[in-house]
Design brief:
heterodimer; A: alpha+beta; outer membrane lipoprotein receptor (LolB), chain A; 14 strands; B: mainly beta; two-stranded antiparallel sheet
Chain lengths: ~300, ~475
């Protein structure tokens, strides 16, 4: 039998994908979410992003979820790096560019993989004239961790790590947005439950791309309180990532869309840029941001 | 005769103002028709509904042809505030006074802000304000104003490198952690003329400072020198917080500024360390007390004598984030402050009499509080401040005259953002711990667009008849401010 080169490649690809599919079919829920987070970390490492954050009250019209008011739109620039043991901690800073009245407001976050270390957030408000640390944990159904610039995204929604604080199980396999997905349930353990608003989360993970396409968050009474929808899944430096994330607050009927308009990774980020100093020292911040922008523009 | 407004560092603001949406001056308004108000949310139909994020396309905030943000920002505002409650009140001397209804503030303001990182590592920043006092404003007939006033708030140049930052010019230094009540936030002077500005964040005045910050891996060391210390501005006679001066030698007592007869300077340093979930700082400074101290004239005139006083401040501050709670703590030890006492002096006829005077004493002050994010749209903070002079004279005359050696304040702030941040309701309540003075400010800020904002406030005050603020007893004020930012 004569095998052409293209035929050989096809066979190899088939064998490889079949083996990969078999291996992935045997992944546990924890392993799947580890890979999801590895993807997230890969995209956030040494990254400079430009983000449009839109928020509005929403409703249904013609069986379509739509804003019921003019969305409030903010433009952000965000810089992040991975650090710590095995680069599993993430430090990120976001600065508001628009609207003009909020220009310069910044938020700095440290997300630790270690469950023993609470994540940290700082915010600079020019009216106060100083950097404020923000308490990020919460422990009852009526509270949320710090909001990201008044949106429905909270610092908790942005976090990675601490998976060992959850019981993770695959509920079933199904489809979401036309893609094959694992439907994975995460339930926080006793320690984590004291710090999260979500008593249960159901995530729909793309089986091929290891991207969360949808996440349903439930409170302690079993009510679905928030839903995350991901779209515009694209490969960035070989890693699949969602460039549009929409968080729907089903209690407040409000949603926020985070459109990542530009993702630039492999950026040379100065070591001391992701510190509280950057929030308040405008000369330093703008000098470093200019260097970072020059790497991508 | 100290002119001391104890609860001027704070305010209450809660707003109740429901206005029609509109006033389209924002780029975000152009597509308002695309988002009708008529849609409803049916949870039962939610799972079957489609979602298309393309509705958020087209803002064009990062497009190459989008205009670069300018260095200038302007805010034009018109403020109108009226005193609503006509009533009588008692003065500490037992006399009666009448508070009339009427306009108090009627002014047009322009705020200018400039921020220009003009070269790598360099920043030039300035801000100024211009006020035109219209008929009815308590400043309109002030002979020193000619109907208008301007002030340079900020003007500094900053040079920042990898580890160090230097800035020189008119700027702010904020020490301490407890919002609005920090006993360490004493570097900058403050001015309170009326009840529309009571938050220290708004009342703070900048000073000419040279500041050096050295940044380390887990904190920073910040030092400053002030070669031209200023003092809190002289109270404006006829303003809501200084309605009528005392009379001396048959005339109104005149309060003047400090006449500089020698070179003054201040300096201080603060070391800050960040830990996971916590920050601590220690600081020390040689400062001048911000309020001028006045004593009665002894030359037969009506001009009060002024006195300034330098003292040493030692401070410690800390915060701790515990789950959803942020705890704050400030501690200050002030060495050599002036405080009110009675001194026995000769009456010239072989006898003695007691006269008000100042004595240098040390004071221990603390402030503690918490901040709590109830939700993404609701915030609350509470702080308590208490201070006590150590080593006051124990003579019965001083003790009886001062009434108390220690005093304290409580400050509660609550804010609730509604309608996609269009409406922010807030309440600020401040009270002396002994209940002698209290203030409640209810405020509503309604953002008509990114450029236009309408703010309303209702201010209620209480003051005991023997309080320094007795004239604020049972006062009710209401105001509106319309502002346009561009």
């Amino acid at each position: 039998m004569r095998l052409t080169l293209s035929g050989l490649l096809l066979v190899v690809a088939f064998i490889t994908s079949t083996a990969q599919a078999q291996a992935e079919a045997q992944l546990s829920g924890r392993e799947i979410l580890d890979r999801v987070e590895d993807n997230q970390r890969a995209v956030s490492d040494a990254a400079f992003n430009r983000i449009q954050l839109s928020s509005c009250r929403f409703g249904l019209q013609n069986n379509q979820i739509t804003c019921a008011e003019r969305p409030r739109v903010k433009a952000l620039e965000s810089v992040s790096i991975n650090t710590g043991v095995d680069n599993r901690d993430t430090q990120s800073i976001s600065i508001v560019l628009e609207p003009a009245a909020e220009r310069g407001i910044g938020m700095l976050s440290y997300a630790y993989d270690d469950p023993e270390r609470d994540n940290e957030t700082w915010l600079y408000l020019s009216a106060l004239g100083q950097v404020k640390r923000i308490a990020s944990g919460n422990s009852d159904d009526d509270s949320e961790s710090a909001s990201l610039f008044g949106s429905e995204f909270t610092t908790e929604d942005q976090d990675t790590g601490k998976l060992e604080e959850y019981d993770i199980s695959i509920l079933e396999e199904g489809t979401e947005s036309g893609r094959d997905v694992w439907i994975i349930e995460t339930i926080p353990n006793e320690d984590r439950a004291r710090k999260t608003r979500y008593a249960r989360t159901v995530q729909y993970v793309d089986k091929e791309r290891f991207v969360v396409l949808r996440a349903d968050m439930y409170d302690r009474q079993g009510r679905e309180i928030k839903r995350l929808m991901a779209s515009r899944i694209e490969q960035v430096n070989g890693v699949w990532t969602a460039r549009s994330l929409t968080m729907m607050n089903l209690v407040a009927n409000r949603l926020s869309n985070m459109a990542i308009l530009e993702i630039n990774s492999g950026i040379d980020v100065p070591e001391n840029f992701l510190t509280p100093r950057t929030l308040t020292d405008v000369a330093f911040r703008e000098a470093e941001l200019s260097r970072i922008r020059a790497q991508v523009d | 005769m100290p002119v001391d407004c104890k609860f001027r560092r704070h305010l209450l603001s809660v707003l109740v103002c429901l206005l029609p949406a509109g006033s389209p001056v924002s780029a975000q308004d152009s597509d308002a028709d695309a988002f009708p108000d008529s849609v409803e949310f049916d949870p039962g139909a939610f799972d079957d509904a489609a979602f298309d994020d393309s509705m958020f396309d087209g803002a064009g905030l990062f497009e190459a042809n989008a205009s670069e943000p300018g260095n200038f920002r302007f805010q034009l505002s018109q403020q109108t505030v009226a005193h609503l409650s006509r009533h009588r009140y008692s003065t500490p001397s037992g006399a009666a006074g009448t508070q009339h209804r009427g306009l108090e503030n009627n002014r047009l303001g322009l705020n200018i802000r400039y921020q220009n990182p003009f070269a790598a590592g360099w920043l030039l920043q300035g801000s100024a304000q211009l006020r035109a006092y219209l008929p009815g404003d308590y400043e309109h007939d002030n002979p020193g104003r000619d109907g208008w006033e301007w002030r340079l708030n900020e003007l500094f140049v900053q040079r920042s490198g990898a580890k160090n930052s230097f800035s020189f010019g008119r700027q702010t230094i904020v020490w301490g952690e407890t919002i609005g009540l920090s006993v360490l936030d004493v570097i900058n002077t403050t001015e309170y003329r009326d009840l529309t500005i009571i938050d220290i964040e708004d009342a703070r005045l900048n000073q000419w400072l040279a500041v050096w910050d050295h940044f380390g891996e887990h904190g920073n060391w910040s030092s400053f020198v002030n070669l031209y210390p200023e003092f809190d501005p002289v109270p404006v006679t006829g303003s809501p917080l200084f309605p009528e001066p005392a009379r001396v030698n048959g005339q109104p007592l005149r309060l003047g500024s400090h006449d500089r007869d020698r070179h003054l300077f201040e300096f201080g340093t603060r070391w800050n360390r960040n830990f996971t979930g916590s920050d601590i700082a220690v600081m020390t400074a040689r400062l001048y007390e911000n309020p001028l101290r006045y004593t009665l004239p002894n030359d037969g005139s009506n001009r009060a004598r002024t006195r300034i006083n330098d003292y040493t401040l030692l401070g410690f501050s800390a915060n701790r984030a515990i789950d959803r709670l942020l705890l704050t703590f400030d501690l200050a030890y002030s060495y050599g402050l002036l405080t009110d006492v009675l001194q026995r002096v000769s009456d010239g006829a072989g006898g003695t009499l007691w006269l008000p005077a100042y004595d240098k004493q040390n004071r221990l002050s603390m402030a503690a509080g918490f901040e709590y994010g109830i939700s993404a749209t609701r915030q609350i903070s509470l702080g308590i401040q208490a201070q006590r002079f150590i080593g006051l004279p124990q003579d019965s005359a001083t003790t009886q005259w001062r009434q108390r050696d220690a005093d304290g304040l409580a400050l509660l702030r609550y804010s609730h953002s509604l309608r996609n941040e269009e409406l922010v309701l807030s309440a600020t309540a401040q009270a002396a711990l002994d209940g002698d003075e209290a203030l409640l400010n209810l405020a509503a800020d309604y953002r008509l667009s990114d450029a236009w904002e309408l703010a309303g406030q209702i201010i209620l005050t209480h003051a005991a008849h023997d309080s320094a603020l007795y004239f604020l007893e049972r006062d009710v004020r209401a105001g509106l401010t319309l502002s346009w930012s561009f």
